[in-house]
Write a structure and sequence with these properties.
This protein has a domain at 1-76 and 146-151 and 172-218: Rossmann fold (3-Layer(aba) Sandwich), CATH 3.40.50. Helices cover 27% and strands 24% of the residues. The chain has 7 helices and 9 strands, in the order αβββαββααααβαβββ. It has a 6-stranded mixed β-sheet with strand order 5-6-7-3-8-9, sandwiched between helices. Strands 2-1-4 form a 3-stranded antiparallel β-sheet, with no helix packed on it.
Amino acid sequence: MSLADPGSALDQQRIQIQGLNFSYEKNPVFRDFTFNSRSRVSILRGPSGCGKTTLLKLMYGLFGPEGSTLWSVPAPAFLVLQADTLVPWFSGRDNIRKFSEPLWEQVRNGPFFDLLLPFIDKRAYEMSFGQRRSIELARAFSADAPLLLLDEPFNFLDPEKRRFFLNHLNGCDGFSSPRRVVLTTHYVEDIRIADADSFEFRGEMPYAALEVCHTAPT
């Protein structure tokens, strides 16, 4: 994947899902569902329990769809869920290094390290929720995965940290990447992410499609 031509790399890895079926036991969530996005960032909105997290887990591979006629999703993906996944007795540093030493080196030499430095050697159980979420996001953004799946990534972050990660998504810190991002959020200001399409879960399950609320300029 070449950083020199992010447009073509993104176009090759657009998200295309058609004919998706998925149920929790006998409760259908998606029936003949279609989701297509050409944008760099796709924002999923909707009330709690509507299926946003389920769609992320399907794209990640935690769940297997019951069937689909087309499944074109960049892989591998890096998933950050609302639930805290840090090992409580590991330091922030070790929670990154447990993935791989190269990932730790990317974090240590990247744009997030100064933000993490005040608490990077604390054990996770000693950190605030916002500090733990910052570790998780820095770990995800520094990974080489072509797709980031972020479930309410700005929960627990104060306005300054939220703005920091939003700026990163917008390329305001000089960082650019051909990776795609799909995120769920309740924060109104997230719609201002550049190159983002916004979709909303409306109506009742099972869903066949999402309502397009905003389309990024081509």
